[in-house]
Amino acid sequence: MEQLLLPNSANSTPLTTLGFLERAAAAYTDCPSLVYNNTTYTWSETHRRCLQVASSLSSVGIQRGHVVSVVAPNVPSMYELQFGVPMSGAILNNINTRLDAHTLSVLLQHSESKLVFVDHLHSYLLLEALSLFPRNTKRPHLVLIDDDAAASSTTTTSPTVTVDFIDTYEGFVEEGDPKYKWVQPRSEWDPMVLNYTSGTTSSPKGVVHSHRGIFILTANALIDWAVPKLPVYLWTLPMFHANGWGYTWGMAAVGATNICLRRFDASTISDLIQKHNVTHMCGAPVVLNMISNSPDFEPLKTPVQILTAGAPPPAPVLSRTESMGFVVSHGYGLTETAGLVVSCAWKPEWDKLPLEERARLKARQGVKTVGLAEVDVVNPETGESVKRDGVSLGEVVLRGGCVTVGYFKDKEATRRCISDNGWFYTGDIGVMHADGYVEIKDRSKDVIISGGENICSAEVESVLYSITAVNEAAVVARPDMFWGEIPCAFVSLKRDLELTEKPTEKEIIEYCRARLPRYMVPRKVVFSEELPKTSTGKIQKYLLREFAKSVS
């Protein structure tokens, strides 16, 4: 009997999401897969094109384990490369299009990228990045992603570096073999993607995920959000953000129509929702804030499911977004988990609560998803679980199959985050509520300690966001000789306000004083046209902390 229970060649095929595309071509053959302006592909066409890209990569010398990078917005080629690159056996490295040339150069050198697919509107930036390579350092080959639908751009080389584009993306497609036998992983633990963290205060870290981890994350993402067959998915979340939280592969599994767009604003999102009858979309809280603050956004004719994550969304923003007809789901994850692994699983009885209370509950990160083994909030000193009282602060820790296998070429960083007791330490500070729901309060470095009291900046920011005139808000620590630290608020106001509608510093402080304990009230409010952000849209609090030191 024991021999019958052992693994065998029939049941030990490595888990990989790449097979989702083969299935989509068979099950959803002539259904639309990708829509971009006036271009539409079917799932059979997308399958063929991805095989051709993989074939061409192999023909130019890309081998199993090589890193292939992509610098592109949410256009069809970007989607196809999520399959085409790993189908060649290579490791896929999506790079944020908002990075500067120096950071881009650092990432390409660190990853040892062999080839880069670059969108033509970002080609000059890439060439500048390559010019920063040390002399005699081997540079990657380049393939140009052209786009007739976008404004033309000159792709001349930098005067300090000579680089030849070995082909165009469409050339890669045309020259590849549509019957190419794609390279399956030898083991499901083989690396599949390399994603870099945003690196707001230090050098970005290269997060490696295996085929197994990506498979678990993707299946988990579809189940938790209850994505049905044949949805219409609008790509408002950049695919370079953790491969679109796994939905690049997930949408193939359910035969979705992927609506691609190069850039977007509230008006564009509104138009595309109406035109294509969009059912699902994702975005960071900044996207929700943009939509809910837009006077031009058309009322939704039918509800649209929108999944948000990336930072604790202020309850007022959630409330405004839902009042427009969106059904907001909220989750939590990191680059190190490849997508969302904690979600605010909604309970039917909460539907009866007032809107403000529903928004407060939905702002919590929630419980583990089905693909995660465990989530807890622990004392980082002792490793003991904190009390389930919604007040006691600790560090959020995770364990499960979609946690990263480690940081590329950085054993020390891997050791610091993955403990001997089997937890991944996230660096996020949170509480555990009595019902088992986790709520993120801050990054560990963002907690303000004033007179021995811990102040969660996100809690103060949520109050600031409830002020009608406020567009964005951030609260940081400001040194104080008596209290040690005191909260200092930075806010940007909505641009279309009349002079009489703009609140004063005193009015904002009084507003907070009526809604917060006195020690949490900002002592100073600084107005700014726009708050500084990272390349992934997160507010750069470390810059604000430095500025707060000089504020009188």
Question: How would you describe this protein?
Answer:
The chain is an alpha/beta fold and 552 residues long. The protein folds into 3 domains: 13-209, ANL, N-terminal domain (Rossmann fold, 3-Layer(aba) Sandwich), CATH 3.40.50; 264-444, ANL, N-terminal domain (Rossmann fold, 3-Layer(aba) Sandwich), CATH 3.40.50; 449-548, GMP Synthetase, Chain A, domain 3. The protein contains 17 helices and 26 strands. The strands form 6 sheets. A 9-stranded mixed sheet has the order 2-1-11-10-12-13-14-15-16, sandwiched between helices. Strands 4-3-5-6-7 form a 5-stranded parallel sheet. The longest helix is centred in the first third of the chain and has 17 residues, at 43-59. It is globular, with a radius of gyration of 24 Å. It starts with 18 loop residues before the first helix and ends with a helix. Residues 152-159 have low confidence and may be disordered.
What is the structural class? alpha/beta
Low-confidence stretches: 152-159
Number of helices: 17
Shape: globular
CATH topology of the largest domain: Rossmann fold
Rounded Rg: 24 Å
- Total beta strands: 26
Please give the CATH architecture of the largest domain.
3-Layer(aba) Sandwich
Q: What distance separates the N and C termini?
A: 77 Å
CATH superfamily of the largest domain, by name, is ANL, N-terminal domain
What strand order characterises the main sheet? 2-1-11-10-12-13-14-15-16
What portion of residues belong to β-strands? 15-25%
- How much is the average pLDDT? 90
Please summarize the sheet with the most strands: 9 strands, mixed
CATH class of the largest domain: Alpha Beta
**Into which percent range does the helicity of residues fall?**
25-40%
Count of discrete structural domains: 3
